[in-house]
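Table S2 (continued). Query chain:
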Amino acid sequence: MNDEDTVKRTQKTAKKLFGKGIKMDPPYLLWKDFDRELANDFSKFITGNLYSRTVLTLPERQMVACAMLAAIRAGDELKLHVNAALNVGCAPEKLAEVFFQVATYAGMPAVNEALGVYKEVLKERGEWPIKS
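Corresponding output:
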């Protein structure tokens, strides 16, 4: 595949993930402040090549990303990916369950932080409380 195809895939996938919901700057903008070419390479690799693969669906990839970000307590990045997970159709109650599962491996403080971030995103999106 050529670079033009990768750029198109990157843009298409990024729009699905980050095109709606809460308003926050993606990490790409920070990367670009330091090195535009490297930022583009990172973006094409992460969003255009990895996230566009079909072995896992976008909702599955986002649940994995959210679990990992919760476990390492990366709140800002988690906020971005919780929003993306909701954008691609992750069920809100499943995301909550993902965060509770993190307790086994990362402890309750990580769960509490993740649920706090999740609630904040849901409120910003006008989707709190979760309706089951």
